[in-house]
Amino acid sequence: MITLYSYPGLFGVADNNGYGLKVFAFLKLTGLPFRQEHIVDASAAPRGQLPYIVDGGDTVGDSDVIISHLTRRYGLTIDAGLTPAQRDIGHLVTRMLDDLYWVMSYSRWKDERFWPAFRDALRHEHPDLTDEQLRTARDFNAQRYYYQGIGRYAPDEAYARGIADLRVLAHLVPASGFLFGENPTSFDAAIYGFLANIHFYDIETPLKAFVAGHADLVRHCTTLHGLIGRDGEIASPA
């Protein structure tokens, strides 16, 4: 059976990181049986990053690589009906979500207005997390933000960047159905991974306020959440 290694859940979602939740959603939507193990130490992961999966003798990291691996190995058809143009749009959305990730992470670990509430929420839901682990994670993220660039932004500038990404999503996500029609694709799983970690996030950041003000984003997120849920022990076959 496939094992998904990803960060702990928070606020009712199966992973408090957009990339891990993206893979979780993909597995659920495709009906592949899997186990989910929540970890915080990524030192054993490919490239030292979560999520990753162990699938038989293969260990695969990076959410996009994981999805490609699973699609090939199991002959998954979730994206089979997409046109080349739709795949191109999906690729662009995926890259935009990569940009949004940094702003989301900044709002949790960097912004002093929201860090205490995030820290306390993690401690409440995962009491086994130690002060040292949280301090190490925060220091590590501060270094990443600086070298990536978002750490050199003032908070309002950082959120303006993330809201610009969300505004594009608000234009693309339809009032009914999913990104490319009546059935969800891997790109909907990717969008859910990030929107759910904003919409269900119980801390009032500027990103959350923007999503709350856009009914199509909320509908897309909650519809997929209803299909996916939080239980990651076994996904029922489709």
Written overview of the protein:
By secondary structure, the protein is an alpha+beta fold. The protein folds into two domains: 73 residues, Glutaredoxin (3-Layer(aba) Sandwich), CATH 3.40.30.10; 145 residues, Glutathione S-transferase Yfyf (Class Pi), Chain A, domain 2. A hairpin with a 2-residue loop joins strand 3 and strand 4. The longest helix is centred in the middle third of the chain and has 26 residues. The C terminus is likely disordered.
Largest sheet: 4 strands, mixed
How would you name the oligomeric state of the polypeptide chains in this document? single chain
Strand content: 5-15%
Rg, rounded, reads 17 Å
Low-confidence stretches: 232-238
Tally of structural domains: 2
Helical amount among residues, as a percent range? 55-70%
Backbone structural class: alpha+beta
Number of E-type strands = 4
Write down the overall geometry. Answer: globular
Strand order of the largest sheet: 2-1-3-4
Terminal Cα span? 16 Å
> What is the CATH third-level topology name of the largest domain?
Glutathione S-transferase Yfyf (Class Pi), Chain A, domain 2
Order of helices and strands: EHEEEHHHHHHHH
CATH architecture of the largest domain: Up-down Bundle
Q: Kindly state the mean pLDDT as a whole number?
A: 93
- CATH class of the largest domain reads Mainly Alpha
Tally the helices.
Answer: 9
